[in-house]
Amino acid sequence: MKPQKYFPDEVYLNGKWLKHDEACVSVFDRAFMLGDGIYEVTPFYYGKAFLLEAHLNRLQTCLNKIQIDFDAFSLKPTVKEAISRAGLGNKDAAVYIQVSRGVAPRTHYYPEKVKTTILLYAFPVTLEGFENKNWDVLVSEDKRWHRCDIKSTALLANVMANEEAVSRGFNENLLIRKGYFTEGSHTSIFFVKYGMVFTHPANNDILEGITRNFVIELCAELDIEVKEKAVHVDELVEIDEIFLTGTTTQIVPVNTITRVEKRVYTAKKDQITRRLQKVFFERTRAK
Ligand code: PDD
Predict the structure, then answer these.
(1) Among 94, 161, 225, 247, fewest CB within 10 Å belongs to which?
(2) Listed residue (166, 172, 122, 185) closest to 3, CA to CA
(3) Are strands 10-13 and 117-124 parallel, antiparallel or unpaired?
(4) How far away, in angstroms, is 125 Cα from ligand 1 center?
(5) Residue 6: exposed, middle, or buried by beta-carbon count in 10 A (0-12, 13-18, 19+)?
(6) Residue to mutate, 186, 189, 204, 218, ligand 1, most ligand atoms under 8 Å from C-beta
(7) Whole-angstrom Cα distance, residue 177 to residue 201?
(8) Average pLDDT, the chain
(9) Which ranges in the chain belong to alpha helices (H)?
(10) Ligand 1 atom, smallest distance to 210 CA
């Protein structure tokens, strides 16, 4: 069964707090018409922001990459206000932020003098218990564009991949490009081989995950060697552990991998994943 999701009561749209069903954008909004917008999802543990600066920084970097002139950091107070207005001040939650280039007659080039459309809302998330999950995942062809480093609202290829996984009862996809694992449909991938951790380099083929970068820092603290190198499907036989990371996923081990109809991997170990989960838990739950 697909997980049940709910609308937030209230959203922030262009400076106003509105009931979710009263918040409207123009049909000519470029995020609606062209997917011409950037988004972020930033977590709160017990109502406390975690890595908010890094999330706003990535939002700013992505906006700059597509020349949307907007100060991402100006949203910081609104992000926090969203949490308190939603009554999530001491709960686990996340804030969705979307910056669209704005409303303009449809063109393939960037229109001039357009006012950005800002949408933001808080929603509760179950962040507890991630350490008890163990995911079965599906290998899917990475059919996305060549700028996966940009956190664009145009997520159709990710959505198509994930629908294939979820409708077949899998928890997530592992995407492959020319036989190499890139990332999940909404997560980053880590592989453990010979006690070393491998993850795809932060180039245009993946989104540079904030959780990914934090996990790389944790590995350094724990003296676990990390190699930013793509792993090929044929290397799976040598892999002992695989885990996925993401803002709402946190750190979840991969139990099995299926490719088409065939089981191509079953987890052999879990030691490194468990060590990382433990320190991740301590850091995110620090009072
Ligand atoms: N997804 N890769 C992709 C394609 C993603 O969409 C995400 C996050 C990640 C993990 O990034 P981070 O650690 O910064 O969350 C990797 C978000 C949560 C989403 O689309 O809802």
Answers:
(1) 225
(2) 166
(3) antiparallel
(4) 15
(5) exposed
(6) 186
(7) 13
(8) 97
(9) 30-34, 52-65, 76-85, 156-167, 210-221, 271-284
(10) 14
- Pocket residues: Cβ below 6 A from ligand 1: 41, 158, 183, 186-188, 207, 209-212, 245-248
Q: What is the CA radius of gyration of the chain?
A: 19
CATH domain 10-124 topology:
D-amino Acid Aminotransferase; Chain A, domain 1 (3.30.470)
In single-letter form, the type of residue at position 148 comes to C
Residue with the smallest CA separation from ligand 1 atom 16 is 187
pLDDT tens-digit readout, 222-277: 999 999 999 999 999 999 999 999 999 999 999 999 999 999 999 999 999 999 99
Enumerate the domain spans of the chain.
Answer: 10-124, 130-285
**Could you tell me the two tokens for 177?**
């490009």
Q: Are 173 and 138 in contact (CB under 8 A)?
A: yes
Which tokens in the block code for residue 124?
A: 């509760």
Predicted pLDDT of residue 1 = 79
Close Cβ partners of 86 (under 8 Å, ≥ 6 residues apart): 8, 9, 10, 93, 121, 122, 123, 124
Q: By the 8 A CB rule, do 49 and 73 touch?
A: no
Assign domain 130-285 to its CATH architecture: Alpha-Beta Barrel (3.20)
Catalytic site includes residue 227: no
